[in-house]
Amino acid sequence: MRFVTTTMRPVYATRRRRCKRIDSVPRRRQRHGVQLGIILRNMGPASAPETVLAAARAADDTAAVADVWVTDHIAIPPDDAEGSGGRYLDPLATLAVVAGVTRRVGLGTAVLVLPYRPALPTAKWVATIQELSGGRLRLGVGMGWMAAEFRALGVDRRHRSRITDGTLDFLDRCFASDVAEANGQEFYFRPRPPRPPLFIGGSPAAAFRRVLAHRAGWMPTALTPDALRAPAAELRAAAAAAGLPAPPIAVLGMLPRIDRAAARDALAAYDEAGATHVVHAERYANPDEFRRILDDLARAVA
How is the chain split among helix, strand and coil, in percent rounded to 5? Predict the structure, then answer.
């Protein structure tokens, strides 16, 4: 499992290194306002149906957890399959199923790789999940990075930025009007629920332009509070200059959950650095291990 701080690689993407634990923060005692999310493993043995459904229900029953998030791989090559064995559930299909067995918890993608899918079917999936879940979808998106997957899809990796921008523009148009247009053909875009909260993955240089253009949030990976502080301030300043509210920031990483005080301090430090969400990512093998993680996190925010 590997997190990269300069580019938005999906969670658990490579095989060389485990997720860095984020606990190098000074002790604090004040309450924080950061929402807590958790990665729901849609890969490897933990993506068995009974485990996914049990974990989703457990998260739904844990008031301290605001949302669950799934990752996106579509064609893992055999030489990069450690931890998953190449088994990945589609993120949107997974969230559609999870929506049916939960009632409260938010449902997020961290992140959906936009160049992997045509824009119109993607928009229809997003609208359908948002409609059937009662508005609980959180749409984290990114450009993707794994060359093997782009080759398998027949998509030119050099065009991923352009494709991403095109899909984001298309989503904006679809959620703005009942009548949309694609390839010169008008069509009804119904149902048309409110557009889900949007989070853009990637480094500041790549992500901030899209964050502002689409009134979205930012989803960086594995930034410590100290590393987050400067880009978060930069993003808030850019939004203010554009007459926009401060964008939400959801950081993917691993909290030191075993040490309740350290986990609480880390959340407080993220709050001070500008994060609005922290999404905890940790491997687990079965529902019992997932419940223990939930219990530790719940104690940290109590």
Answer: 40, 15, 40
Strand partners, 108: 69, 138
Q: Residues with Cβ < 8 Å from 152, sequence gap 6 or more? A: 74, 75
Looking at the structure of the chain, the number of domains it has is 1
| Domain at 40, CATH number | 3.20.20.30
Q: Are 36 and 293 in contact (CB under 8 A)?
A: no
Report if residue 14 sits inside a domain: no
Cβ proximity of 39 and 281 under 8 Å:
yes
Tens digit of pLDDT for each residue in 36-69? 999 999 999 999 999 999 999 999 999 999 999 9
Amino acid at 231: P
Classify residue 23: in a domain, yes or no.
Answer: no
Cβ 107 vs Cβ 98: under 8 Å = yes
Q: Angle at CA 237, nearest 5°, toward 235 and 239?
A: 70
Residue 150 CA to residue 39 CA, distance in Å, equals 24
pTM: 0.90
Q: How far is CA 291 from CA 34, 100, 110, 214, 262, in A?
A: 21, 20, 21, 36, 20
